Amino acid sequence: xxxxxxxxxxxxxxxxxxxxxLCLASCAPEPVAAADTIPRAAIRYRGDxxxxxxxxxxxxxxxxxxxxxxxxxxxxxxxxxxxxxxxLAQFTPDTAxxxxxxxxxxxxxxxxxxxxxxxxxxxxxTWAVRAW
Length: 132
What we know:
Elements: H1 6-27, H2 40-57, H3 63-74, H4 93-102, H5 113-116, H6 125-131
Helix pairs in contact: 2-3, 2-6
């Protein structure tokens, strides 16, 4: 058509494709660095999370998924509070009461009367991790 052979067309197309890929690669955002360390606040609850996840879900429990969710919900702050929810797992008070009624085994083992009030408390880290 313009004096180009099929070979020349493929050669030009290859160079254009390479140029396009180079441009796209240079415009790509920098990859987000993965966290190399466990957040300091998470270390405090790591044992509870692993123990409770294995107790409820078995040894193949997706502990990292649970940890990620808790990190997203409260950044490992048991006192975290939003407009409707609170605690590590950000349960609403209604959901906490429902969980305690529907799954009594999730409540902590009976203890002194002062501990009974904490058994279904969204701000009790151990309960929140187990109910999660």
